[in-house]
């Protein structure tokens, strides 16, 4: 009877969106194929070809034979990866190994007991323990426990600028807040928007708050929130950061129409490349975006620097925010944990790091420095690698770090603050009220 | 007599495929979503019974009222805009001239495009640096709202134009000839003949428009993401956000159930008010 109803439920479940996600949970079978092949879910963008190569190499390796298993990579397309992973993890077709962003993106899986705690494995395995940059490994942890192995390039948020435009107006990349404001004033006088900002996507706005809170109050402020205490939003640094954002907006630092500019459709990168804006605070992927769309600009005019210091702030100017990297995690219901772990170990290998570098990524492995000469853009790769290696703290993007049900209202509040529908005080009050 | 009539009608079993299809793909999921609305579930493990918690939250946390207000406003303004434009275009296109036929075919093109493609297109056009619309359209409440109305209209007016064109072509020419003999001007003929004759057409078009705007989703998702703030977060978007961004499937199912009830009630009301169900011919006695 139970089987019957389950199958019936599952059939019906493929129909309606909301119920579909619900129904699949009724299945309770283990993941993986019937032939002992494990499934790995990966975010199916261009970079997935590096993982595809790694999987086929692993399947042909001695480690796969010893653990009597192999892997099949499933590229889950589109930006809806988190929703698809969530649905699959509740179903009998759950992956054994899955791509994630660490932090809040895996919190629910930990609570449901569906993600393998790798703390012991990493501590007992020198390859894993010494294989990665500590700040990156730590950024993926939850409450001090490790659940993921870094498997893609690092994506710190960097301040990009137009070198040629800066030279024309006699400007230097800002190292302090006063320099930044001084630059802004001179750029505005010249009719140039100081910062490109893809406000239509909202998450580019979040990057400003992430860096400001870090520079003003240090990484501890958000750490408190990340570890489950919403009262942490009440820290004076958050209010100060929100006020600073309002000052920048009112001052026209982002131009007048930033809410109608998107990053995702190329509007913001184009504003920087075409000289309409002088700077752009963005994840390191901005470099490859520019290289793809405006190669001449990327090669000859694109500059980069760390986010400036905030006068009197408690945060170390070397701290970074952003997406430390992506991680592989293992489903507790996997049929062959040995194979899964053996595959995860390959992420620490030089071969894998070289492949990431050839793809334009900067791997989070501990000794990648020497390999970076082979990068298509060695100068930028080395800057990025050193930035992260020297960073005392790497704060995971807030929207990835908090629970998904808090992330959406948080982004809405950020948007309200930027468009002027909320005041810094109301912004703080609203964040404190989040679960 | 009754046997003869029965023979002329299809056997009830003919409806079986449609009934099964509808039941399996609409009624069953609907019932399950309704059931889910009484649980707390994040997509993992088993849904936990939550009693009326989701419904209580839905009715008291203010999101529903706000969203409902936006949905109603968007529906009303969209319908007004689309009906006016489609009526005028449709009646114009119903004329026998060759150029009108060609232009109507061109006007129909937007309807053939996917809503997603149309939204992405306008997303790019609204960029203040490189688009055609200066200023911060999506950053202001009225701008974002009007953008949604316009983009929806741009896409769906062609469809309703087609309906009105068909309706206008059905109007017997003799009515206009008689009116012309009586000395009625162009405007008078439009008001006294065209409009009353198009009553049923308008009802059909309106019902489709209202039901359509209740499921309006992609445009909001792509253009505004419910913003600025939550000022354009219509009900379907709120449901999507609760379900697939926050993974609060219980709450999302409560919104979904509410939407089903509201849409059904609204359709019934419209059918009643417009006389769509017991539609009488506009040409009785002709």
TrEMBL record, chain A:
<dbReference type="InterPro" id="IPR006059">
    <property type="entry name" value="SBP"/>
</dbReference>
<protein>
    <submittedName>
        <fullName>Extracellular solute-binding protein</fullName>
    </submittedName>
</protein>
<dbReference type="InterPro" id="IPR050490">
    <property type="entry name" value="Bact_solute-bd_prot1"/>
</dbReference>
<keyword id="KW-0732">Signal</keyword>
<feature type="signal peptide">
    <location>
        <begin position="1"/>
        <end position="20"/>
    </location>
</feature>
<dbReference type="Pfam" id="PF01547">
    <property type="entry name" value="SBP_bac_1"/>
</dbReference>
UniProtKB/TrEMBL annotation, chain B:
<keyword id="KW-1133">Transmembrane helix</keyword>
<dbReference type="InterPro" id="IPR000515">
    <property type="entry name" value="MetI-like"/>
</dbReference>
<feature type="transmembrane region" description="Helical">
    <location>
        <begin position="249"/>
        <end position="271"/>
    </location>
</feature>
<feature type="domain" description="ABC transmembrane type-1">
    <location>
        <begin position="68"/>
        <end position="270"/>
    </location>
</feature>
<keyword id="KW-0812">Transmembrane</keyword>
<keyword id="KW-0472">Membrane</keyword>
<dbReference type="Pfam" id="PF00528">
    <property type="entry name" value="BPD_transp_1"/>
</dbReference>
<dbReference type="GO" id="GO:0055085">
    <property type="term" value="P:transmembrane transport"/>
</dbReference>
<feature type="transmembrane region" description="Helical">
    <location>
        <begin position="101"/>
        <end position="126"/>
    </location>
</feature>
<protein>
    <submittedName>
        <fullName>Sugar ABC transporter permease</fullName>
    </submittedName>
</protein>
<comment type="similarity">
    <text>Belongs to the binding-protein-dependent transport system permease family.</text>
</comment>
<dbReference type="InterPro" id="IPR035906">
    <property type="entry name" value="MetI-like_sf"/>
</dbReference>
<feature type="transmembrane region" description="Helical">
    <location>
        <begin position="68"/>
        <end position="94"/>
    </location>
</feature>
<dbReference type="GO" id="GO:0005886">
    <property type="term" value="C:plasma membrane"/>
</dbReference>
<keyword id="KW-1003">Cell membrane</keyword>
<keyword id="KW-0813">Transport</keyword>
<feature type="transmembrane region" description="Helical">
    <location>
        <begin position="12"/>
        <end position="38"/>
    </location>
</feature>
<dbReference type="InterPro" id="IPR051393">
    <property type="entry name" value="ABC_transporter_permease"/>
</dbReference>
<feature type="transmembrane region" description="Helical">
    <location>
        <begin position="138"/>
        <end position="157"/>
    </location>
</feature>
